[in-house]
Amino acid sequence: MLEVTSLSFKRGGLSVLDGVHMRARAGEITAVLGPNGAGKTTLLKCLNGIFTPEKGEVKIVGRPLSELSLRAVAQKVAYVAQHSPMFSMTAFDAILMGRLPHMGARPKGEDLAKVEEVMGQLHLAPLRLALVSEMSGGQRQKVSIARALVQETPWILMDEPTSSLDLKNQMETLALMREIVRRNQKGVVVTLHDLNAALGYADRCFFLHKGRIHWSGTSKEVTPEVVSAVYGVKVEIVYHKGRPLVIPLTPGVAA
Q1: Average pLDDT of 144-166?
Q2: ∠ CA(62), CA(191), CA(48), 5° rounding?
Q3: Closest by alpha carbon to 164, among 127, 131, 197, 137?
Q4: How many CB atoms lie within 10 A of CB 192?
Q5: Is the pLDDT score of 218 beyond 90?
Q6: Are strands 204-209 and 29-33 parallel, antiparallel or unpaired?
Q7: Residue 204: which H helix or E strand, with range?
Q8: Are 33 and 65 in the same domain?
Q9: 129 and 244, same structural domain?
Q10: What is the Cα–Cα distance from 220 to 244, expressed in whole angstroms?
């Protein structure tokens, strides 16, 4: 379980998060949704210790995040940032960095094997010797996702992981994450702007609005009224082959 209690965060004297409560479960994909500026990225950075909240607490598997060392945090939480870093190293070496919380002075055979395994899952093997700094944005993002997977943490935080990917790679990546979550009982907390991807792949959704949790529930419980209240746009939710689809009704502001 990943638990957030009464979490508040300010930047430049302005409130970004205000009394956020959230529980994410292992074996599920939890989507954090909301418009630009709602506090989604800030929340993720509070969940892995990049930011220290002004108030409140984050617990991972029952232990307060504030009590864990940096190495212990890195053994429990992997993070995929919204913008992929421009490493001046090969894809293989960049992904191998994800093994650092588990390695000694040198990588072992099991570390190298894990990198090869994940590169195969994400179809990155042909790029193993390519420089990350010379890759496309989508390729760099897949390297970042691979680095998080080889970290083998019980929790993975992902900030807009599919924003640089084309449609095929978006679907493959989200499907892979769902498979890994189910097979290994990992927990994933992901921010997404694509509501249809969120409702199609996430088990549970938290809608952030002006720094607060406006609504939470399962993906199947999301209503047009919830989406309209958070995004200010009238929508309809229809089902196609059992999957919910959010359809904007007008380009105007919701009444």
Answers
A1: 91
A2: 35
A3: 137
A4: 24
A5: yes
A6: parallel
A7: strand 204-209
A8: yes
A9: no
A10: 7
Do 153 and 246 lie in one domain? The reply is no
CA 194, 202, 40, 253: dihedral to nearest 10 degrees? 40
Total domains in the chain come to 2
| Predicted confidence band of residue 253 (pLDDT cuts 50, 70, 90) | low
- pLDDT for residue 252 is more than 80: no
What is the largest distance, in Å, between two alpha-carbon atoms of the chain? 60
In a shared domain, residues 213 and 255:
no
The pLDDT value recorded for residue 163 is 82
CA atoms within 13 A on the CB side of 27: 1
Mark whether 47 and 131 lie in a shared domain.
yes
In the numeric block, the tokens 């930011």 are attached to: 51
Determine the Cα–Cα distance for residues 192 and 227; give it in Å rounded to an integer: 14
- What are the tokens at 169? 């790679």
Query: Residues 66, 95: one domain?
Result: yes
Whole-angstrom distance, CA of residue 219 vs CA of residue 198: 8
pLDDT in tens, 74-97: 999 999 998 877 778 999 999 999
Element (H, E) at 138: helix 137-150
Structure tokens at 27: 């074996």
pLDDT digit string (tens) for 117-148?
999 989 999 999 999 999 988 898 899 999 99
Please report the pLDDT score of residue 200 as a whole number: 92
Query: Is the same domain home to 181 and 242?
Result: no
**133 and 42 in one domain?**
yes
The region, left, alpha or beta by phi > 0 then psi within -120 to 50, assigned to residue 185 is left
Q: What is the CATH number of the domain that holds 155?
A: 3.40.50.300
Range(s) of the domain holding residue 255: 227-255
Confidence of residue 180 (pLDDT cuts 50, 70, 90): confident
